[in-house]
Amino acid sequence: MRYQLPKHFLIKPVLKESNHSKGLTLFFGSLGLFYSTVFGGIIMAIVEYAILLHNRYGLNDFGLMLFELAITHGVCVFWGLSAVRKYNHKQLSR
Prior knowledge:
It is built from three helices and no strands. It has 94 residues and is mainly alpha-helical. α1 (18-28) runs antiparallel to α3 and α2 (38-59) runs antiparallel to α3 (62-92). It has helices at residues 18-28, 38-59, 62-92. It has a domain at 29-92.
């Protein structure tokens, strides 16, 4: 005989914290973005790696590299927060 759950039994969805996403992406950039979205983490890791390679073998301007990495970190924060918001909305609408 199988145990059946009562009809009024609710399962609480697991939600992601937006503050965790914000902190991880601020400190770790694209690696912190993996908490929110794997696809976004891969894309931004490739972008950050391309910036580092461009600085190493191309322009060699350290200030410009820091500016570009600051911009990509900002994009990571925005992307992470929007991914967490979308994930939580999807979990709550089930």
